[in-house]
């Protein structure tokens, strides 16, 4: 309805302006034509009248009535000479007297006669030996005004018809435009009421086309629904997996603590067992703390907000290598790094690289070597351990996945998942494979920041 009102108001204003322009254009044209006709008659009559001023050139009333014209002669002193037998409906005014006195130009005006009827009056100068005069001609305006009234009525009817038609078309168009919006609104309401994150799929239905703005809105909403549904599924899987993984250390800790409580009352544990149980509880508590930390890391947003400065990824890797050396004092580290500038978060990237190095340290043999190579945008890390079983390669970055070889080693099963999460959030990729003649190999590819972006951050 608002669209119909606005359309009708707009068309009404346009119709009014066009109608007024049409009316006044027609009025000006008709008055101009009438004045031209009267001036031509005055020019034709000036010759005979100049030779017979008293008799007005022999003009008779019958001829004037046939042409629907009134003619009279006005002298410079205001005296008026009329045609015998003609009515005196027209009284000359100062305009006509001025023409007689100045003998310059001509005058045209509309007047109301003594019979209360409108007339169009023109005056032209006439100079004779007997004095200066003005020939005044008048014609009734009623036929012209009747034509103008017809024009005005036609314009009003046409304008009103256009307003009504535009209002109807605006209403129909508004309904067509609002139908898909109502459908979209209803679908959104259903999603909010049922909590079902299903795509709306409204494009192509109820007048929604693929190339219009409503189609874009529908597609954007469907994309948002897919993202929300995917995020909810990931959260559910994370909660389920976390609950499963947390249950084991919690159960073990509870069992050990119950043994300690029972021993406090009965002293049933042999000598040295209490210390072993406390050591086991401390180890389980450390595992539990590590698992909680990894879960917190994974619960962060999927998108990383880069720090507002460029990073040399080689520095990040070098810092992670120093940390790994402290955890593997009996290992050798073969490191070759080249500068590689990116834009990202140094803390999360260092943790990702540290997780890869910890994995290499964990599976390297005594006095083995961990190899780190970075050339271009590619970082490669491999160890000399047993490698990754081919059937485990597709699942190596899944949350809580632990291969048969790793089940008896410390860890939460989240380290490599955090690596994939961090590298993907920075627009890179990480893949796992086996180094020929050695152990597991991980390849990280991070795109370099363009020079103009580096310059922008430096500025």
UniProtKB/TrEMBL annotation:
Main location: membrane
Domain Histidine kinase: 241-450
Gene Ontology cellular component list: plasma membrane
Catalytic activity: ATP + protein L-histidine = ADP + protein N-phospho-L-histidine
Gene3D superfamilies on file: 1.10.287.130, 6.10.340.10, Histidine kinase-like ATPase, C-terminal domain
Keywords per UniProt: Kinase, Membrane, Phosphoprotein, Transferase, Transmembrane, Transmembrane helix, Two-component regulatory system
Key word Amino-acid biosynthesis present: no
GO terms, molecular function: phosphorelay sensor kinase activity
Protein name per the record: histidine kinase
